[in-house]
Specification:
The chain is α+β, with helices and mostly antiparallel strands. The chain has eleven helices and ten strands.
């Protein structure tokens, strides 16, 4: 497809850039996103990061582009291209990974699509103000890639108007900071697989009923957690989509997750690649022909992922096959032109020389998170969605799986490449060992270690290939007894 930013998008860009320049200052600058980091990481001053969420909320920059059919909820209206513009400018400014991503980009669109008016009125304004943080209660020790095998149960107490939840969730990002958790639990006794599940909104502040245990990663951080529910209480009016319909709601949420955020994620990938290229040039590693070839190949594959993401997003916005159009009504093109016909600079580009003498685009840092939760097959009619959209988009079940396969392997190879560029120095930490700080890593070491999980979380490569085989190629299904 063609893709570009029109005059309205550029005005929106200027507004976003000016706001960030004015507000991402002072005490917030210590939170600047570091290479090799990710939004859910356990590093950084959590009090300051919460304060930054509230600052974004006050400025109306949380929930950009949410569906406004039932109200604005304190956020601002934005087209799809303006959502991308905001993500680019946020990343360009080096602003920190978002603590509120799960509430803003996963739960909110789900409530807009499946919640009732009372649920939207209760939860969306608090998310838009940056006041309440959320975590996701999906994966379990025996229900990771096979989410339908979950065992967490929720029993209805009609007299009290509540559900009592018992079970365990795992790989729950930022559960140690979250105020609320949306939990997929089995509410029908004797039900199996996708049937009898419900989607519940659960407050995390329940001492003695909810226990959170951090899981320390190879990177030394503990952004993921185990969560144990022992009779935790959820109010009946906080059941989303109706009892027994949790699978439909849960899969709708996953489709949202793999919509526009896929494109935004690549902004961070480009920033990381640019840093690896700079290091290769500085150390002379780029003179080695095989390594040089890998650097160029990595850049080319990133460009291919970008075009694939744009094609998918454009098709979802224009299911009839008509060209994507900007707010002024003109077709959207890859090489943007202003009203005078001159090329408009792609603000995601900050070129550096690649080893082949070309120019490697340095888009910006990642403003989208990477979760740790593999899942089972989505229903046949679910395709890519967009934040705040009630329309599930085109019925293309293969598109999210293709995107996941592409970026998971690409980012993992980038981590390997970063270590290769460092050479023997990659085995050494950036600081001298001390008893108080025994496990220090630099940005490239964090990138390498964390990216080992890229082909597992968010849906393992095996599951993605099964989806493509069964839903796109219509190959015989494997037995799931």
């Amino acid at each position: 497809m063609d893709f570009a930013f029109g005059p309205e998008d550029e005005r929106f860009r200027a507004e976003a850039r000016d706001w960030l320049a004015e507000h991402f200052t002072g005490p917030f600058t210590v939170l600047e996103q570091q290479p090799g980091g990710h939004p859910g990481e356990g590093r950084g001053d959590m009090a300051a990061r919460r304060a930054w969420e509230r600052e974004l909320g006050t400025g109306g920059w949380i929930g950009v582009g949410w569906d406004r059919t039932d109200g604005a909820y304190g956020n601002r209206a934005a087209t799809l291209t303006q959502q991308v513009v905001w993500a680019e400018e946020y990343a360009r400014a080096g602003a920190p990974g978002r603590l509120g991503h799960i509430g803003e980009n996963l739960l909110a669109p789900t409530l807009l699509a499946h919640g009732d008016s009372a649920q939207r009125a209760r939860f969306l304004p608090a998310i838009a103000r940056g006041e309440e943080l959320w975590c996701q209660g999906y994966s379990e020790p025996d229900a990771g890639s096979d989410l339908a095998g979950l065992r967490t149960r929720a029993v209805r107490d009609p007299a009290a108007g509540t559900y009592r939840i018992t079970g365990q969730k795992i790989w729950t990002s930022l559960a140690h900071e979250a105020d609320w958790c949306f939990v997929l639990a089995r509410t029908e006794e004797g039900s199996q697989r996708h049937h009898g599940l419900s989607f519940l909104l659960v407050p995390m502040d329940q001492p003695g009923r909810i226990e959170v245990r951090p899981i320390r990663q190879l990177t030394g951080t503990a952004e993921f957690n185990e969560v144990f529910f022992d009779g935790a209480v959820a109010r009946a009016e906080h059941l989303v989509g109706g009892a027994g319909h949790g699978w439909r709601v849960a899969m709708s949420l996953l489709a949202v997750e793999r919509g526009v955020s896929t494109l935004v994620q690549q902004i961070g990938f480009a920033q990381e690649l640019s840093r690896v290229v700079r290091l290769a040039l500085e150390t002379g590693a780029a003179e080695e022909p095989v390594l040089r070839d890998r650097l160029v190949r990595q850049w080319a594959e990133l460009k291919a992922m970008r075009w694939n993401a744009l094609r998918t997003l454009g098709a979802a916005q224009n299911p009839a096959g008509s060209p994507a159009r900007n707010p002024a009504g003109s077709p959207v093109r890859d090489h943007a032109q202003d009203s005078a016909g001159s090329p408009v600079r792609d603000h995601t580009q900050d070129p550096v020389q690649d080893p082949a003498g070309g120019r490697v685009p340095d888009h910006a840092r990642n403003a989208a998170p990477r979760r740790a939760a593999p899942y089972d097959l989505p229903p046949r009619n679910v395709g890519p969605q967009f934040p705040g959209s009630r329309d599930p988009g085109p019925r293309d079940p293969g598109a999210p799986s293709v995107a996941k396969l592409l970026w998971g392997g690409w980012h993992q190879r980038l981590g390997e490449l970063a270590v290769q560029v460092r050479g023997a120095a990659a085995a050494l930490g950036p600081e001298r060992w001390t008893a108080g700080r025994p496990y220090e890593l630099d940005a490239f070491q964090r990138l390498f270690l964390f990216s080992r999980a890229d082909t597992i979380y968010g849906g393992s490569d095996e599951i993605q290939r099964t989806i493509i085989a069964e839903r796109v190629l219509h190959l015989p299904k494997e037995s799931r007894r």
